[in-house]
Amino acid sequence: MSQTVDRALSILPLLAEGPADLGRVAGRLGVHKSTALRLLRTLHEHGLVYRQSDQRYRLGARLFALAQEAMENLDVREIAHPHLVRLNEQCGHTVHLAVREDSEVLYIDKVESRYPVRMYSRIGKPVAVTVAAVAKLLLADLPEAERRAVAEKLDYPMYTARSTPNAAAYLKELATVREQGWATDFGGHEESINCVAAPVRGADGRVVAAMSVSAPNVVVTADELLALLPMVRRTADAISDEFSGRTPAKDPA
């Protein structure tokens, strides 16, 4: 039974390359055409493959519907939280997870610093979009026209002397963030708080969330915090892999 399931599932990545006839499917699986036909018929009955008028097979519409439904029901916070906790245990600093909802970027998870001096933030609170590292990552991923439209609608409060002053400066910074794949906020919102952030990406490569490590400069300097960037990026990549289904789930004990 497991071999049959394995063969049937092996057909799907083959058809993802493009329509294939019975002979090609059988050849790829290393089975007789009758066996391949039986597998294709079963997949066809479930809507996972479709037989075209030229007798070639392609992926079925139900497969895409299932994938879309699965993505809509994924909870990035639930997937990310254990990774955020481990990162916090390793570095000791405050760890955030944020997403973009309409015109705002919101914190949806937070793991507190183990140090007595902490930053004020809370789950559900909007971030300062023009300076927050997580916001820069989420907006930098937008298509250029949308990115420009959003930037031109924003207000640019000068929280500190390091705050982003206007749309032109913000768009320039977003272009840098988009190219390098990470972001910082070194005293842009609060002079005493520094932050480094990395993106969480979905299966299509788009940024679905952003995570960050933040700390007061009385605990670590900006350079010391920036040295943690490889660790932050590895954590974001691990969340991305699990969210996208690239990391196999562990068998239950």
Automatic annotation (TrEMBL):
Whether Transcription counts among this entry's keywords is yes
Organism superkingdom: Bacteria
Residues covered by the HTH iclR-type domain: 2-61
Coiled-coil-forming residues are none
Q: Which PANTHER family match?
A: HELIX-TURN-HELIX TRANSCRIPTIONAL REGULATOR, ICLR FAMILY (PTHR30136), HTH-TYPE TRANSCRIPTIONAL REPRESSOR ALLR (PTHR30136:SF24)
Q: Which UniProt keywords apply?
A: DNA-binding, Transcription, Transcription regulation
Q: Which InterPro entries does the UniProt entry name for this protein?
A: GAF-like_dom_sf, HTH_MetabolicPath_Reg, Tscrpt_reg_IclR_C, Tscrpt_reg_IclR_N, WH-like_DNA-bd_sf, WH_DNA-bd_sf
* Name of the protein: IclR family transcriptional regulator
UniProt key word Calcium:
no
Organism whose genome encodes this protein: Streptomyces thermoalcalitolerans
